[in-house]
Amino acid sequence: KAGVTQTPRYLIKTRGQQVTLSCSPISGHRSVSWYQQTPGQGLQFLFEYFSETQRNKGNFPGRFSGRQFSNSRSEMNVSTLELGDSALYLCASSSQLTGTNYGYTFGSGTRLTVV
Amino acid sequence: AQSVAQPEDQVNVAEGNPLTVKCTYSVSGNPYLFWYVQYPNRGLQFLLKYITGDNLVKGSYGFEAEFNKSQTSFHLKKPSALVSDSALYFCAVRDGLFSGGYNKLIFGAGTRLAVHP
User: Fold this and answer.
1) Which tens digits make up the pLDDT trace of A62-104?
2) Sign of the C-alpha dihedral computed for residues B63, A90, B73 and B113 taken in this order
3) Stretch A46-54: mean pLDDT
4) Checking DSSP bridges between strand B10-14 and strand B111-116, what pairing results, if any?
5) Does B104 contact A at CB distance below 8 Å?
6) Is the pLDDT of residue B110 over 50?
7) Chain B interface includes A60 (CB < 8 A)
8) Minimal CA–CA distance to B34: which of B104, B84, B81?
9) Would you state the pLDDT for residue A100?
10) Is A93 part of the contact surface with chain B (CB cutoff 8 Å)?
11) How far apart are CA A65 and CA A77, in angstroms?
12) Cα-atom radius of gyration of chain A, to the nearest Å?
């Protein structure tokens, strides 16, 4: 089955602009989580969506937002970009079924560079 | 709060030798533990997980991990390292429903594994 698809793979934006990143989870998976990876802070949780509802949010400013559509695809948006937002943004897909799966499949990420 | 620690920034090992990448955790309740590997400019690839059951977990690419509850450790191991194993390795714990965190992974800082020919 197809994996987690993140688009675009690379983005260059200017400070002050906004950006939208997209994530298509594995078919049938209803949970989508987003993570930011930087050399200084490592992997940090941004937020998680399940059935179009945000269930959990990390410690990021309000400039970071997201949403999930009825087909489970998710987008995250960053407004008023800052240089420090330059990072690899990773999306993780999970079936979140009861039981012992607890599997998380990651996409290849979107590399955002803010100049 | 749940947390994981990877005490080594880098591990160097000769090809053919056994390798160990260390991870310790701190959780309330039963831990759900994971290992992921990341190659340059790529996402995270799942290696293995511990949810419950046998303390020795076997995963992808010949890797295994030993869950030790008394030492709160979940070290990643491989009997014979390959040059192609050189990558960045992350240990993670799931911040699960029991703590109100729902579906969220907390990652260690990562350990860079360098396997030399």
Assistant:
1) 999 999 999 999 999 999 999 999 999 999 998 765 444 567 8
2) positive
3) 91
4) parallel
5) yes
6) yes
7) no
8) B104
9) 43
10) no
11) 5
12) 14
Q: Are B72 and B25 in contact (CB under 8 A)?
A: yes
Both tokens of B110, joined, read 């990562």
Take residue A71 and report the two structure tokens written for it: 């087909």
Among all chains, which residue has been given the structure tokens 């002050």? A16
Task: Flag if A109 and B34 touch (Cβ within 8 Å).
Answer: no
Q: Which residue has the tokens 């078919």?
A: A27
Tens digit of each residue's pLDDT (9 = 90 or more) over B65-108: 999 999 999 999 999 999 999 999 999 998 765 444 466 889 99
- Name the β-bridge partners of A23: A6, A74
CA distances from A97 to B42, B47, B88 (A): 27, 20, 29
Q: Which residues contact A71 (CB under 8 A, 6 or more apart)?
A: none
Sign of CA dihedral A78, A80, A81, A83: negative
B82 Cα to chain A: minimum distance (Å) = 23
Q: What is the dihedral of CA B49, B54, B58, B64, to 10 degrees?
A: 80
Question: Is B70's Cβ below 8 Å from some Cβ in A?
Answer: no
Local confidence band at B27 (pLDDT 50, 70, 90 cut-offs): confident
Judging contacts by C-beta atoms under 8 Å, the chain B residues touching residue A107 are 43
Q: Quick check: A5 and A107 in contact, CB under 8 A? A: yes
Q: 3-state DSSP: chain B helix, strand, coil percent, rounded to 5?
A: 10, 50, 40
